[in-house]
Amino acid sequence: MATTDDTTQTHLVILGATGSIGRQAVEVLPCVPHVRLVGLAAHSNTALVLEQAAATGAGLVALHEPGAADEAAARADVGLAGDALRVYAGDPGVAELIHDAAEGARAAGASLTVLNGIVGAAGLRATLAALECGATLALANKESMVAGGPFVIAAARASGARVIPVDSEHSALFQCLAAGGAGAGGGAASAGATAQRPAPRADVEELLLTGSGGPFRTATDDELAQATPEQALAHPTWSMGPKITVDSATLMNKGLEVIEAHYLFGVPYERISVLLNPQSVVHSMVRFGDGAVLAHLGAPDMRVPIAYALGYPQVRPTLPMVRRLDFFAGDLTFAKPAIERFRCLKLAIEAGKKAAIVETEAGCASGVCFEAPASAGSASRAAAGPAAPPRPPAAPRTVAAPIVLNAANEVAVHAFLEGRLAFMRIAEVVEKCLTWLGDEPVESLDDVFACDAEARRFAVEAAGGPRADIPTGADT
Ligand code: NAD
Ligand code: MG
Predict the structure, then answer these.
(1) Is 33 within a domain?
(2) For labelling alongside 355, which of 132, 328, 333, 438 has CA 20 to 30 A away?
(3) What is residue 238's predicted lDDT score, i.e. its pLDDT?
(4) Cα dist from 43 to 15, 68, 166, 324, 339, whole Å
(5) Each residue's pLDDT tens digit, 197-206
(6) pLDDT tens column, 50-71
(7) Atom of ligand 1 nearest to the CA of 476
(8) CA angle 294, 214, 146 (to 5 degrees)
(9) CATH number for 169
(10) Residue 44 belongs to a domain
(11) Atom number, ligand 1, closest to the C-alpha of residue 474
């Protein structure tokens, strides 16, 4: 049972509060009573954010669009938006809100969790701001890990902040790794926290990342060529925001998730496999060195991984509203993804591997949830004597491929949703941009943001652009 004792209280900020993840996070709050919502951020939906603030008592609100922030501030001024509401504007506003929430938590003797449910690489600055404050980052915004992986890991390691995955597959992997004894998720590089666990040390042979295959899993080539936004948005098993739903249809979502898994768990790409489970019942699995496979099963419902991340490490919340799995209701099947037809998945894995070669050469740290698990068959480590003392992580250095992949995909998906680009051309746009820009060296955060912006310009051109409003996030 959760405690409301002030010493264990967690303050919470929800970013992307008006979206699919954000709304479900607000919904599960009563199931995590030690968590107190203090702040909300969204793009421009002032009415919903103020409604959420009034319903939960959150006193800090950020709106990305300045006009929306002005409207919220005006309502707060005349007492129409609850007591003492503080309003922040723009990207800097989100970072300021996080800093103020961190100060507030410190003063109250509470910990701070920031749930990042912003869509797109627009969430990267917020991810970094949360980690710099030492807040626990509950990460739904996979694009910030894809675009900024080595820099996100460096920020977490520098402050000792903990990253808890919210993406359902990564939440499943996190739990399977912990259950199998691969480490204790005790914060970046926190050897102490890892050592406290009495679990045996385990060899991780393979991460098995599952996916439904999306609405076009069994479509013919003709059907794929004619695919409409309405068809792409009709996901067979999950209900999500529009961008990730289209990513699920192209399998780019699975590709982004492979990269996310590599950075979160420090497992090399060669030991991360994708397999389809069309029922979305197996949320992912880990194969250990003894051949045993641990899996996480359940109904496809994002409230489960969201509540898990918010409750961690105090409590695994009870969620009576989540449908219980009926093992006799249907078959559980598995299939290989058609990687040549769904080219986005292939492009993503190649982009991740390209970056990993440079990052490994540069000595960059990888793995932020756990110490990097041992490779298969490394039981011979013991015979080889004690491991060398760990080297301090090097300054992040990589290449632009994952940044370009993500940015070009955001532009192409936006164009597809507006009816300006055919479904099969999404992969084409991404591939062109990767050819043009994927090898650019990246040595700083400024480089990350410059590559992201450049890739968006190229992608607009490749998609048959020109358009003024290059997408940086949803407008809910
Ligand atoms: P969504 O489109 O439903 O919501 C996006 C939210 O981000 C909205 O609240 C929007 O106002 C906000 N936003 C956009 N740009 C912003 C900015 N610059 N500053 C502040 N807020 C901004 O998207 P979603 O489906 O909730 O997905 C959010 C993230 O979670 C994505 O990265 C997605 O890949 C990931 N994710 C979602 C699901 C899901 O079930 N929806 C599952 C796993 C992972
Ligand atoms: Mg997922």
Answers:
(1) yes
(2) 132
(3) 85
(4) 9, 8, 20, 34, 34
(5) 445 678 999 9
(6) 999 999 999 999 999 999 999 9
(7) 11
(8) 70
(9) 3.40.50.720
(10) yes
(11) 14
